[in-house]
Design goal:
- The protein folds into two domains: 118 residues, Arc Repressor Mutant, subunit A, CATH 1.10.10.10; 154 residues, Trna Endonuclease, Chain: A, domain 1 (3-Layer(aba) Sandwich).
- The protein has 286 residues and is of the alpha+beta class.
- The protein is 43% helix and 17% strand.
């Protein structure tokens, strides 16, 4: 039987605190790890419980306990769809106190309770939620790998919105990263494919990346993480023939949606074998 998704359940502040949100009192009770997580959520909007554990904890039970505490204080909100049988992981985003803290830190107007409540509900119901979580997952896994690997570091992670500040309307990547491991460094744009676009539409994005590369002078890899081995095969049949790939102006690498992003799962368009993410630096245009 096909599981039926029930209306999403949201655990967040039900009313505005009497006298308004006082973020100063709450922030004094937070650990540096909590502040870092709040800052990441301000940029990347939503994480699952397992993603938060990978980012900042060594134990899933410790992560859950801390997240529930932050939720009870109105710093984080959580939501999920009920799926029978069982339920999916909680998704975590900023609640009123977390949003008020970021606004005060950045010298921005204090957000209203109703605004934040609507923002949480829109995110919980968004048809792009799965896409956002999948894109975030790649970067979360890289941070988790770097926590346990000497010489590995994700020194930059830009959200889709932050990317637009650099790329404008030329391209619309799902994220940007700057990754170093074992002395190799690669900067990359991520295209996260959820199987909702036809292959010719995905290929057409390369025209825009070629125009952006020429206008900006940047030398970044373009990672296409496809939804399945079949989708990757279909994409690659047309990839190597694209003029900007064939003549070496663009470095494009693909993956079939499986495996850890730091490992040898990326196949450059014109190479026969898969390589580690950092090893893509050896394939950059000269």
């Amino acid at each position: 039987m096909i599981p039926r998704n029930q209306p999403h359940k949201v655990n967040a502040l039900r009313t505005a605190p009497p006298g308004g949100a006082n973020s100063a009192d709450e922030m004094r009770r937070l650990m540096p790890r909590d502040r870092w997580l709040i800052d990441l959520l301000g940029q990347h909007r939503v994480f699952t419980t397992e993603q938060v554990c990978t980012l900042a904890f060594g134990n899933i039970h410790t992560a859950r306990n801390r997240l529930v505490l932050l939720n009870s204080r109105g710093i984080l909100a959580r939501f999920r769809d009920a799926v029978r049988p069982g339920s999916e992981q909680w998704r975590w985003t900023l609640d009123l106190i977390g949003e008020v803290y970021l606004a005060a830190r950045d010298d921005q107007p204090t957000p209203k309770f109703s605004t934040i409540r609507n923002k949480i509900n829109r995110l919980a119901a968004s048809p792009r939620l799965g896409h956002l979580l999948a894109a975030n997952d790649l970067f979360v896994d890289l941070i988790g790998h770097a926590r346990n690997t000497s010489g590995a570091q994700l020194s930059n992670w830009w959200s889709e919105a932050a990317c637009r500040a650099v790329t404008g309307d030329l391209v619309r990547p799902d994220g940007y990263g700057d990754w170093t491991e074992h002395g190799r460094r690669i900067t990359f744009w991520l295209e996260q494919d959820q199987g909702t676009e036809k292959t010719h539409r995905v290929i057409a994005k390369l025209d825009d990346y070629a125009a952006f590369a020429q206008a900006s002078g940047r030398r970044d890899a373009i990672l296409f993480r496809l939804s399945s081995p079949r989708a990757e095969k279909s994409f690659r049949t047309r990839l190597a023939a694209h003029p900007a790939v064939a003549d070496g102006r663009l470095l494009v690498a693909t993956n079939d949606g499986t495996g850890h992003p730091a490992t040898a799962i990326w196949q450059p368009a014109t190479a026969p074998a898969r390589v580690r993410l950092a090893e893509l630096a050896d394939h950059l245009p000269r």
